[in-house]
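Narrative of accomplishments. A recurring question from our advisory board has been how the design workflow behaves on a single, concrete structure rather than in aggregate. To address it, we present the structure tokens for one chain from the evaluation set, followed by the sequence designed for it. No filtering or post-editing was applied between the two.
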């Protein structure tokens, strides 16, 4: 992720179902996308010496296609903004853990910062989703998101083998996890396609949060050459089919966030 800038977003207003109509939009400029390069001033030139005669082999390529059967959990009606926690509930049920979405919400980290608005009605100050859920998960008030790092803490505290945060990894790593029997919670958009609808606020500590209210989290349960298959907690569709290239572009916009279990 880009140093000092956090880029993601949430289903608040309009809601995720309405944002699903925004498929096919272009991603924002590279400078606003998670993972955009930020110079540290400490870059050094690489040198090569005593190189081995045989290069080490890379990770094993995942199978061309794979599909898992994971339970479906809807975020509705109780958690209008709860796609992340409902997706985690699907993963915990798949793992055989006896926790409901209500149990997980009770354990979910929260950033209690209330939104502060500017003169034009936009959000000037709000919470940090890297610390906990921002806003109201029920939808009674404005709600936003929780990101992979604090959500991983919930799974770490419940599953003996611990969480595996795949944020920043390649999509092939997600496919390898699925082929190894572990579905993956992934942050994308409600349309499973890139968006150009972005906004920004600062946390109370002055950290800029660049966000899209099109954000959505799903449980990826399968893939093949052309499609990704997801359990969608908003539409309550099991193994819903998403066009793979567009899905990956949206996932990249949202910081390549992904979470599974060891």
């Amino acid at each position: 992720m880009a140093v000092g800038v956090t880029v993601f977003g949430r289903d608040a207003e309009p809601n995720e179902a309405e944002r699903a109509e925004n498929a096919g939009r272009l991603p924002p400029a590279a400078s606003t996308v998670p993972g955009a390069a930020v110079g540290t001033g400490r870059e050094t030139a690489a040198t090569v010496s005593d190189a081995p005669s045989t290069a080490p082999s890379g990770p094993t390529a995942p199978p061309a296609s794979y599909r898992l059967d994971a339970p479906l959990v809807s975020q509705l009606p109780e958690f209008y903004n709860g796609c992340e926690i409902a997706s985690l509930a699907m993963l915990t049920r798949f793992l055989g853990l006896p926790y409901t979405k209500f149990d997980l919400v009770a354990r979910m980290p929260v950033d209690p910062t209330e939104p502060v608005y500017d003169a034009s009605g936009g959000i000037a100050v709000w919470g940090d989703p890297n610390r906990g859920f921002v806003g109201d998960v029920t939808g009674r008030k404005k709600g936003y998101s929780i990101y992979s790092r604090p959500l991983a803490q919930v799974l770490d505290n419940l599953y003996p083998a611990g969480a595996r945060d795949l944020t920043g990894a390649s999509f092939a790593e997600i496919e390898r996890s699925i082929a190894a029997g572990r579905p993956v919670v992934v942050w994308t958009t409600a349309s499973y396609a890139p968006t150009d609808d972005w906004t920004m606020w600062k946390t109370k500590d002055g950290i800029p949060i660049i966000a899209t209210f099109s954000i959505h989290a799903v449980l990826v349960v399968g893939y093949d050459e052309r499609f990704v298959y997801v359990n969608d907690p908003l539409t309550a569709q099991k193994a819903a089919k998403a066009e793979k290239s567009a899905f990956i572009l949206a996932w990249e916009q949202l910081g390549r966030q992904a979470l599974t279990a060891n």
